[in-house]
Amino acid sequence: QVQLVESGGGLVQTGGSLRLSCVASGRFLSIGVMGWYRQAPGKQRELVASMTGPDRTNYADSVKGRFTISRDNAKNAIYLQMTSLKPEDTAVYYCQAEVMWRDYWGQGTQVTVSS
Questions:
Q1: CA-based nearest residue to 76, from 14, 8, 29, 13
Q2: Which residues 6+ apart lie within 8 Å of 28 measured at CB?
Q3: Closest by Cα among 57, 97, 58, 59 to 76
């Protein structure tokens, strides 16, 4: 089993910044893809950013240039630095990790951007 715990969400004004963190624990040898997804009310969950290696990142078009994903393999952690936040970034953000070809999810952390 793999457990993912997110932190760092909160309320911020338009143009502000937040940094999300996610730490994986449990019994595993390594983690494959790690990423961040988000789900706004009434909408489907969508990919925000993912990372498979130091130079292999993928971002949703809506966050390119504003969000940065990073990873610390030694800590089994992944981070999402969010800047220039907009009201449309408001959502529950979920951490995702692939272990042995299975996806695991965190409980989610709320990010609210006020206008």
A1: 29
A2: 2, 99, 100
A3: 97
C-alpha 2/C-alpha 46 separation (Å) is 22
Inform me whether the pLDDT recorded for 54 exceeds 80: no
Contacts of 68 (CB under 8 A, 6+ apart): 80, 81, 83
- pLDDT bracket for residue 26 (50, 70, 90): very high
Q: How is residue 31 written in tokens?
A: 């983690």
**Alpha helix positions (H), the chain:** none
Alpha carbon distances (Å) from 95 to 17, 71, 103: 18, 12, 10
Report residue 68 as tokens: 């940065």
Q: Alpha-carbon torsion 48, 52, 58, 64, what sign?
A: positive
**CA–CA distances in Å: residue 76 to residues 24, 48, 66, 94, 106:** 5, 19, 24, 16, 13
Contact 91, 11 (CB under 8 A): no
Statement: residue 61 has pLDDT above 90: yes
